[in-house]
Amino acid sequence: MAKTLLVTGGAGFIGSCFVLQARARGERVINLDKLTYAGNPDNLASLVNDPDHILVQGDIGNAELVGLLLSQYKPDAVVNFAAESHVDRSIIDPEAFVRTNVLGTSTLLRVVKNWWQNLDEPARSSFRFLHVSTDEVFGALKPGDPAFCETTPYSPNSPYSASKAASDHLVRAFHETYKLPILITNCSNNYGPRQFPEKLIPLMILNALDGNALPVYGTGSNIRDWLHVEDHCSAIALVLEKGLVGESYNIGGHSERTNLEVVKTICAILQDEVPSPTRYADQITFVEDRPGHDFRYAIDCSKIERELGWKPAHSFDTGLADTVRWYLANEEWIENVRSGAYLDWIDSNYGHRG
Ligand code: NAD
Ligand code: TYD
């Protein structure tokens, strides 16, 4: 029988990709999403008449609602994407990150654990709680350091990564203490269609097209390891199916790039797609750095490759070109996300940077 999944944060960038893939596999999805500024039902427009995708607006920290959804739909697994996810916002308002990422995850875990403890076999043994986390919990690497592996000690530097680290520890503790069958995934920076344009890649694409400055923090030499969102979601599905209970799996795309390289590549792709008489790269502006800016992230994903047989299907170069073309082809999606609240954010994050 097809599985039922309770997906949290499934209207966001990565969660919506996972929901679309799950529906393509025939799984029923209950999607609990608070629909914050980052949650966008347009991401799921293709499922609007789908009776096996049930979108519920609500908070993972609402114990009563989570309890009702569990007893009504009896999911085979909970996949927790719900989070505040943007480092720059966490610098301006850390408590919002503690509320959702720490307290919200804690409530979700408690309610799921209480419900799971009363399940009969075999549902009790086959149930899974998969928590989606980030490589940022491991801290920052120097240029020659080996990539993060699953045993790298946690050393988070931003309020965002500290809140994600806290949530990972809670998830792990619920396994050690109550035997809740958990799995954790830690992945690198995602890119692809439907990413909210506060993050580097979509922000640069849209600013370039609008003729605005391309604000590179510091010298642009910081390094991120890019992973296509579809590869990330296929890895999560595999971990859910075959991962060993209690384990964590790193997921990465083997694509380390400096930020300046990424921005220059976006400019070159745009120059081919929408030729501009003034070159997009001339819009690059070096602005005041992010406080506590982690220098480098890099993921060693040999465990998931070796043990579960996963590997990324997208190369960064073709994946990035496809992503740029997605933004060029989806003007309506872009118009809808660039509301007044978005403009306020751009003003508060970039207004003072000069
Ligand atoms: P996103 O900000 O695009 O989406 C987050 C979603 O969670 C939104 O739909 C939002 O409405 C929802 N949400 C927020 N607070 C909620 C709450 N209290 N209750 C219910 N729903 C809530 O984020 P994303 O980029 O899709 O990231 C998803 C997950 O993956 C997050 O846990 C993030 O930490 C993790 N992650 C992201 C990246 C990345 O590069 N984007 C990398 C590694 C890990
Ligand atoms: P971001 O997409 O915010 O992801 P994260 O901080 O989680 O890695 O940023 C990616 C990199 O791009 C990071 O090193 C910060 C940098 N950056 C800029 O240089 N300018 C910008 O306007 C933004 C949003 C990010």
Could you characterize the architecture of this molecule?
The chain is of the alpha/beta class. The protein has a domain at 4-196 and 227-254 and 297-314: 3-Layer(aba) Sandwich (Rossmann fold). Helix content is 44%, strand content 16%. The chain has helices at residues 13-24, 63-73, 87-92, 94-117, 123-126, 159-178, 200-210, 229-242, 259-273, 302-308, 316-329, 331-337, 340-350, and strands at 4-8, 28-33, 53-57, 77-80, 128-134, 182-187, 190-191, 214-217, 223-225, 227-228, 248-251, 256-258, 284-287. It has a 7-stranded parallel beta sheet, with helices on both faces. The protein has a two-stranded parallel sheet with strand order 7-10. The protein has a two-stranded parallel sheet with strand order 8-13. The site of nicotinamide-adenine-dinucleotide (NAD) has 31 residues, from helix 1, strand 2, helix 4 and strand 5.
How many DSSP E strands?
13
As residue ranges, the low-confidence spans are: none
Radius of gyration: 20 Å
Helix content: 40-55%
CATH T-level topology of the domain at 4-196 and 227-254 and 297-314: Rossmann fold
Largest pleated sheet: 7 strands, parallel
In CATH's first tier, which class of the domain at 4-196 and 227-254 and 297-314 applies? Alpha Beta
Q: Could you tell me the mean pLDDT?
A: 97
Which molecules other than protein and nucleic acid are bound? nicotinamide-adenine-dinucleotide, thymidine-5'-diphosphate
Q: Specify the CATH architecture of the domain at 4-196 and 227-254 and 297-314.
A: 3-Layer(aba) Sandwich
Largest sheet strand order: 3-2-1-4-5-6-11
Characterize the overall form. Answer: globular
Order of helix and strand elements from N to C terminus: EHEEHEHHHEHEEHEEEHEEHEHHHH
Which structural class do you get from the secondary structure elements? Answer: alpha/beta
